[in-house]
TrEMBL record:
It comes from Leucobacter edaphi. It comes from the Bacteria. Its cofactor is pyridoxal 5'-phosphate. GO terms for molecular function: pyridoxal phosphate binding; transaminase activity. Pfam families: Aminotran_1_2 (PF00155). Keywords: Aminotransferase, Pyridoxal phosphate, Transferase. Belongs to the class-I pyridoxal-phosphate-dependent aminotransferase family. This is PLP-dependent aminotransferase family protein. The keyword Ligase does not apply. InterPro entries: Aminotransferase_I/II_large (IPR004839), Class-I_PLP-dep_aminotransf (IPR050859), PyrdxlP-dep_Trfase (IPR015424), PyrdxlP-dep_Trfase_major (IPR015421), PyrdxlP-dep_Trfase_small (IPR015422). Residues 34-392 form the Aminotransferase class I/classII large domain. SUPFAM superfamilies: PLP-dependent transferases (SSF53383). The keyword Transferase applies. PANTHER family: AMINOTRANSFERASE, KYNURENINE_ALPHA-AMINOADIPATE AMINOTRANSFERASE, MITOCHONDRIAL.
């Protein structure tokens, strides 16, 4: 066997790692002094339920330091079942596997359902680590457009016809999508279920933000519309609702798939951290999640409104921002005389002005959407948001030679 002394990676994987570094450059930059942080998609520490988390960790009984069940601690699974029932989508223990964050849920999902060369349809734009994971298992990833009602399901048959084969999986972020903030309508969910059934395709419903609704009525989840759907993979996490450092999430899948997921998880990390699972369970048992979410609602609504207001003031009709009813993100597309902006090229100037964001191309498979960017409104106070949009305005004015 030829040895080059170097780690050989398939070309697509090397490119993929490059694309992930592009967005993490923005995240690293936020660590610098006085950068307004619109890049990272995380709750700010001042809004995390720190007292309740401290209590939960302190009260976790000692001696829980052994390996645990790969499917997760029963006590935590019980709380996950309670949350699902209270959200109107009851599920069963034999469908749940606790995961090390939503990312492990996505990794398990793509690992189980994608073979090299399989077609995977994702939203364009989409969460970069989602399509990166599909690519890492050798999928051929194709983006489908989104509008204010989420994935434009109507165009999927055309995409499939052009590809000459049905997709193996369709990856959707139905609520307050990352990066656009849009929500998939019920009518489109029904159509998506029909199409997936016709093609025998898996639907991956990745929903970290659904519980962070601050306006409007919830749209039923795919599982509510089609309970016990054998090809529906639901991926969930506590990262956005509680705290990302917990690295605790879960998947909800058909029991036969669950058995395969447990075997795959055993080979990945045996089980998620046992003491952390107990602390999260304790946090949920004492009913700390619900008041925390209720407290967040007006704050996030206020932050979104502040960001939209500041964008309109700075750019008028030269920037179109989405108007989400929840979640963390606004997606901004520059138009008119700003339509030629390249948000990747603009990025160093924005950092020099003291504001970070994630450029649009980081969320596409083909590097398109260069005149768009993602802003996280959740992390900054309204005053800080005003400061950050002012800095963005100055960076753009400078780049445009004004
Ligand atoms: N899916 C989406 C759509 C996300 O936005 C994120 C977090 N940015 C994840 C999955 C991963 O979640 P976690 O941090 O729990 O791994």
């Amino acid at each position: 066997m030829r040895s080059t002394g170097q780690l050989e990676m398939p070309r697509s994987r090397r490119e993929l790692i490059g694309s992930v570094i592009d967005s993490s450059t923005a995240l690293l930059a936020e660590q610098q002094h006085d950068i307004v942080r619109f890049a990272m998609g995380a709750p700010s520490e001042d809004l995390m339920p720190l007292a309740a988390l401290d209590e939960a960790f302190a009260s976790t009984r000692s001696g829980r330091f052994d390996y645990g069940e790969s499917e997760g601690e029963p006590r935590l699974r019980e709380q996950i079942l309670r949350l699902a029932a209270e959200a109107g989508a009851p599920t069963r223990d034999e469908r749940i596997v606790v995961t090390t964050g939503g990312m492990q849920g996505l990794d398990l999902t793509f690992k189980l359902c994608v073979d090299p060369g399989d077609l995977v349809i994702v939203e364009a734009p989409t969460y970069s680590n989602g399509h990166a994971t599909a690519l890492s298992y050798g999928a051929e990833v194709v983006g489908a457009p989104t509008d204010e009602n989420g994935l434009v399901v109507e165009v999927l048959p055309g995409i499939v016809e052009r590809a000459g084969r049905p997709p193996r999986a369709i990856y959707t972020i139905p609520n307050f999508q990352n990066p656009t903030g849009v929500t998939l309508s019920r009518a489109r969910k029904e159509r998506l279920l029909e199409l997936a059934e016709r093609w025998g395709a898996v639907i991956i419903e990745d929903d970290p933000y659904g519980m962070l609704r601050f306006d409007g009525d919830p749209v039923p989840s795919l599982a509510e519309i089609a309970p016990d759907h054998p090809l529906l993979f639901q991926v969930r996490t506590f990262s956005k609702t509680v705290a990302p450092g917990l690295r605790t999430g879960w998947i909800d899948v058909d029991p036969a798939t669950r058995a395969r997921a447990i075997a795959a998880k055993q080979a990945m990390d045996t089980c998620s951290s046992v003491p952390v699972q107990h602390a999260v369970a304790r946090f949920l048992e004492r009913g700390a999640l619900e008041p925390h979410l209720a407290r967040l609602q007006p704050l996030y609504r206020e932050r979104k409104l502040a960001m939209r207001h500041e964008l309109a003031r700075a750019f008028g009709d030269r920037a179109i921002a989405t108007d989400p009813d929840g979640g963390f993100f606004l997606w901004v597309t520059f138009t008119n005389d700003l339509a030629g902006i390249d948000t990747e090229e603009l990025f160093p100037a924005a950092l020099a002005e003291g504001v970070a964001y994630i450029p649009g191309p980081a969320f596409t498979v083909d590097g398109s959407m260069r005149n768009a960017l993602r802003l996280c409104f959740a992390t900054s106070s309204p005053a800080r948001i005003a400061e950050g949009i002012g800095r963005l305005d100055r960076a753009i004015a400078g780049a445009n030679g004004a």
